[in-house]
Automatic annotation (TrEMBL):
Keywords: RNA-binding
Gene3D superfamilies: 3.30.70.330
UniProt-recorded Gene Ontology molecular function terms: RNA binding
Annotated RRM domain residues: 16-108
Protein's UniProt name: RRM domain-containing protein
Signal peptide: none
Superkingdom as given in the UniProt entry: Eukaryota
Amino acid sequence: MESTEEYDEFLKKVERTIYLDNISPAVTEPVLKAAIDQFGKVITVQFIHAYLQPNGIHAALVEVENKKQAETLINELESVPFMVGGCLGLSGPRLLVSRCLLIKLVKKHAEEVAFLLNEQVKEEEQLAKMQSHTLNGHHNKLKLIESISGEGKLRKLAQIYEIDI
């Protein structure tokens, strides 16, 4: 007798529970609860993690107070795009279009990064050439000063201009 009561209670809970998919991993239980509370009182939120996609899209089971609230919530979610935590819940062909756009955007960003890295390498090569030229100039000046002081010309110039060294 007890098992049939548990089963009936389980069926009632299933009628009040809504399955949400395409949830961003950034969405937390309080955020989801606050977003759905506008349609009805949320009792529990249980996340279903996609273990094959560790950083991918997740799903959740949301239990509301009664069956009518669940039906209202389902109707609202089907008719209007629903955004939770700044991420639009997409489904069907819109999801495919958004994923295609995302793939194009990722490719574009990769190309931009590659271009910027090439430009940075070119700038570093130019800077290295300039620094090498400057270093050679300083080296030549120091060699000239060393040759002047080593040959005794520096002392003669100091005597001519009456400067102490």
